[in-house]
Structure formats: structure tokens, C-alpha cells
């Protein structure tokens, strides 16, 4: 997404989502050239395919080369850009081998290229960590004229605002809410929660905007999370918001939320970006509302 000061934030913003292959050299060269010039760039593109056949071609190259590529194109062809915000991920923070007691912006996923390239199950986590590191390395080594900010959300839930051809095209996180609403999970055993942290998509969107605006955001990473969650907590939130769905929801769901779950520190996002994070109940309730309106 490219943003011009004179039109932001009320005018529809241009984006380059029709590129043939963001891993190609110079893929963004034409996209970043504009008259009048724009002042900010938000880079969100990173593939998350359901099936990974080739970790390098399908996931790693588009994420890493795409990220470094757009930074290089901006440096070469868009000298008026003041700041670039990159959507990273909790995948770039999480450390499954030796998890800290509390995750914050100083936490990094230690995964190596070899680990990510050799195992499809590691490809996405590796792509986010390696792409974000490559972005910070680019800024340090190339000294471009723009500032860099990265935002790192975990599972992202929230009401659907865009057009969907069908509920089968939902993002990965919201799909589990759809499945609960549609009675696809009987219980009591629920699918593994996986990541016990969440973000509301509206808070994440605001974080991107504030990351462009806040002077003190320059050169910083932001951990964008509202707090803990589990699949049972999500089911409970749906039930509270829509008791009429009781017959569809999992019965007596078992909670897999661990007693020794990792902590989180989102104070930097609250203090510098001014984010007042939504609760899980508000997030899931509003998400359920939107999915029901779409026919779930």
C-alpha cells in the first residue's frame, strides 16, 4: 500500500496486489513510481499457502526477496518516501525451542534458513523471521532515506469488512470461528489452539496507521497483541454473544490453555502507538456477527 500525505487517510489508497511474482528482481520498480510521489509504504504481502510443496519457492523467496525487493525499489525509485511499515508476525518472535517467560519486541525466532527450507511445516515461521531480519539488515547496510517500522501480530481475528466470494475464502484465523458457528466441531475435544495470543484486525489496522504517524515509532518493532486466548475461550465468547447458537457449538469443550503459558508485553504499542486493545469478547462477538451476516 502506498500513501500520499495529501490524500491520506480519506482517499482510497493504491496498492500493488497484481504483481506477477514479488520474488522477481525489480518486481516493485514500476509500482513505487508515482506522480505525485507518495510519502509512505505499507508492505503486507507474504504468502501463507495451505499446502507447501516447495518451501523456498512457495514461501521463503516471496517473503524474503519480496521484502528486500520493495525496500530496494523504494530506495532507487521513490526517494520521497519517508517511512515504510512492514507487517511481520508473532512467527518472527516465537521461540519454540527455548521460549521466554514473557514475549516482547526483543524476542526473536532463532530459526535458520536450513531449518525453514528443509521442512514445509517450518516454512512460514521461517519466512517471517528471516524476512524481517533481512529488512532491518537492509536499512542498516544500505542507509536509505526512509525510516522502517515493523508490526508483529499473532493470530488475527475480527469482523470481515471486505467482499468474500464465499466463506471458504476466509483468512486462516477466522476460519476456526466459522467452523464453530457452523457446528463443524462437536466437542468436547477441540482442535489445538496453537498460538495462545490474538489480535483484533481493527487494532492491527490502527497500529499500521499509527506506525506511519507517530514520530517515536521510527526504527522500532511493535508486538501487536490484545492478550491470551484459546479455542475454548473463543467458543465461550461466541456462546455469550449469540446464545441462540448453543445447539451448534461444541458441547463441554476441553480447554488446552496451559497453566504455564508464556506472558506478553504489549506496552510499547500502547504507549507509543496509543492502541487501546479490544477484549477477546468484543473481538469474537463482532466477528461472529459479521460471519452470521455473511451466511455462516
Automatic annotation (TrEMBL):
Membership in a protein family: Belongs to the NAD(P)-dependent epimerase/dehydratase family. Dihydroflavonol-4-reductase subfamily.
UniProt-recorded name of the protein: NAD-dependent epimerase/dehydratase domain-containing protein
Keywords (A to Z) from UniProt: Oxidoreductase
Domain NAD-dependent epimerase/dehydratase: 21-219
Pfam families cross-referenced by the UniProt entry: Epimerase (PF01370)
Gene Ontology terms for molecular function: oxidoreductase activity, acting on the CH-OH group of donors, NAD or NADP as acceptor
PANTHER family per UniProt: NAD DEPENDENT EPIMERASE/DEHYDRATASE, STEROL-4-ALPHA-CARBOXYLATE 3-DEHYDROGENASE, DECARBOXYLATING
Entry annotated with the keyword Oxidoreductase: yes
Listed InterPro entries: Epimerase_deHydtase, NAD(P)-bd_dom_sf, NAD(P)_dehydrat-like
Presence of the UniProt keyword Iron in the record: no
Amino acid at each position: 500500500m502506498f500513501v500520499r500525505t495529501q490524500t491520506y487517510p480519506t482517499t482510497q489508497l493504491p496498492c500493488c496486489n497484481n504483481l506477477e511474482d514479488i520474488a522477481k528482481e525489480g518486481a516493485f520498480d514500476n509500482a513505487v513510481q508515482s506522480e505525485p510521489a507518495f510519502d509512505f509504504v505499507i508492505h503486507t504481502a507474504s504468502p501463507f499457502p495451505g499446502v507447501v510443496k516447495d518451501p523456498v519457492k512457495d514461501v521463503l523467496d516471496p517473503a524474503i526477496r519480496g521484502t528486500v525487493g520493495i525496500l530496494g525499489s523504494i530506495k532507487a525509485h521513490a526517494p520521497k518516501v519517508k517511512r515504510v511499515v512492514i507487517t511481520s508476525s508473532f512467527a518472527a518472535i516465537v521461540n519454540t525451542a527455548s521460549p521466554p517467560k514473557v514475549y516482547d519486541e526483543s524476542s526473536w525466532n532463532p530459526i535458520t534458513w536450513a531449518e525453514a527450507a528443509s521442512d514445509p511445516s517450518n516454512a512460514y515461521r521461517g519466512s517471517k523471521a528471516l524476512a524481517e531480519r533481512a529488512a532491518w539488515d537492509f536499512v542498516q547496510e544500505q542507509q536509505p532515506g526512509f525510516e522502517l517500522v515493523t508490526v508483529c501480530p499473532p493470530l488475527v481475528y475480527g469482523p470481515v469488512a471486505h467482499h468474500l466470494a464465499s466463506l471458504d475464502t476466509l483468512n486462516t484465523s477466522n476460519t476456526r470461528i466459522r467452523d464453530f458457528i457452523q457446528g463443524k466441531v462437536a466437542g468436547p475435544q477441540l482442535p489445538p489452539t496453537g498460538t495462545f495470543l490474538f489480535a483484533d484486525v481493527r487494532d492491527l489496522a490502527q497500529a499500521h496507521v499509527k506506525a506511519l504517524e507517530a514520530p517515536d515509532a521510527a526504527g522500532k518493532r511493535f508486538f501487536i497483541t490484545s492478550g491470551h486466548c484459546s479455542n475454548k475461550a473463543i467458543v465461550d465468547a461466541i456462546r455469550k454473544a449469540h446464545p441462540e447458537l448453543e445447539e451448534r457449538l461444541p458441547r463441554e469443550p476441553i480447554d488446552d490453555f496451559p497453566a504455564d503459558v508464556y506472558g506478553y508485553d504489549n506496552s510499547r504499542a500502547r504507549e507509543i502507538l496509543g492502541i487501546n486493545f479490544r477484549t477477546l469478547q468484543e473481538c469474537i462477538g463482532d466477528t461472529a456477527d459479521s460471519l452470521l451476516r455473511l451466511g455462516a
